[in-house]
Amino acid sequence: MKTMRPAQSPRPARQQGVVLIIALIMLVVISLLATMSVKNAASSEGVNGNIRLSQLASQSAEIALRYCEDAVIQMVSGTGTLVLLPTIQNYAATPSWKLGTTSWDVTPTVAFPLPIASVNASAASATYARPPECMVERLSPAGSAKYSSNFVVTARGFGPEVPAATSARARPNGSEVFMQSTIELN
Questions:
Q1: Out of 130, 155, 160, 175, which residue is the most buried by the measure of CB atoms under 10 Å away?
Q2: Which sequence spans correspond to the domains of the chain?
Q3: How far is CA 102 from CA 96, 114, 158, 169, 170, in A?
Q4: Distance between the two ends of the chain, CA-based, in angstroms?
Q5: Which residues of 83-114 are buried (b: 16+ CB within 10 A; e: fewer)?
Q6: How many CB atoms lie within 10 A of CB 70?
């Protein structure tokens, strides 16, 4: 009797693994794209946060500028509703605002800090820890015709991340914006 051998299946072709290699390369490329997207999103968020802080510091400086302009007009006209008023500095060949930290961040300072309530609506929702400051200076020397009518107002505003000023009056660390205007009264 003849024994039958089971039929042999044809031998499979040797697999090359090309699909696996292509899949791994695609996975690496997709991972790199995802990583770059996350980095770009984080970078954009940081930039937007910095823009927001800068805008809030600009708003603070604008508040200080308008407050001190109103104070000058009220002091010169003799009418006034503001309780706290800045001191008007006399004319100097080099204005105080140009002296940098020697005018703004020393004790005693020539800068006038606004009441914190002028920038924070209420203590419960306080945005700013350090109030904005302003400096008012005469543009003409004593005895001149324009001594009492020409002024320069310089304001400095801070972002919400700047801590309150200490007695040491150290230079602020954070967003800081300067604004300036000239007032000519008749």
A1: 155
A2: 49-184
A3: 8, 19, 18, 11, 11
A4: 133
A5: eebbebbebeeebbbeeeeebbbeeebbbbbb
A6: 15
